[in-house]
Amino acid sequence: MIIEDKSRDNIIEGEIVPATPSASANPTAVVDLTGLINSHLTTIENLKIELNKLKEMLDDIFTNDSTYQEHDKAVREASKVRANTKKQILKMPQAADLSGKIQDLRGHVKDLNEELSGYLQDYARESGTTSFETPDGTVRQIIYTAKLVKIGT
Questions:
Q1: Which of 18, 19, 65, 142 suits 80 as a labelling partner, its CA being 20 to 30 A distant?
Q2: Structural domain contains residue 18
Q3: pTM of the model
């Protein structure tokens, strides 16, 4: 579930609630949707294959260009130096403390977002509405997202 604040483009991730089939589902609409879904899946898979081929071709061009390879090597060396410098700075007590606090807060925000997702699911189910007004008067919409995930092989 995603809550979207159109005015600020803030997106908060959440949990997807499976839809329950309607007793009055139109069989023709289901067949039509099944066809559209299968068609789109096939198109997406074919485009991904084409995309991978084109990406490999472009990667080969970069691999065979000596100037690019020299610059790439210089960037990798500079990145190593930068990473080592960052490690040294993070060993300083003040930096290590701040880094730990950041990680803790990120985990706390993730946990709160998961809880919020559950609360919003309950709110939508109990209230029968998919919008929510915050104390400052902003109206936010509760949005559910769906995607297909393979089951088994």
A1: 65
A2: no
A3: 0.56
Q: Which domain holds residue 60?
A: 2-7+27-143
- Let me know: does 96 contact 90? Beta carbons within 8 Å: yes
**Rounded Cα–Cα distance for residues 143 and 16 (Å):** 9
Binned average pLDDT, 10 residues per bin, the chain of 153 residues = 46 56 68 87 94 98 97 98 98 97 97 92 90 92 87 79
Structural domain contains residue 20 = no
Q: Look at residue 21 and tell me if it is in a domain.
A: no
DSSP alpha helix (H) spans, 4-149? 27-63, 66-90, 93-127
In a domain, 17, yes or no: no
> What are the tokens at 11?
């997106």
Task: Tell me the C-alpha distance between 108 and 88, whole Å.
Answer: 27
Q: How far is CA 88 from CA 5, 84, 92, 95, in A?
A: 40, 6, 7, 10
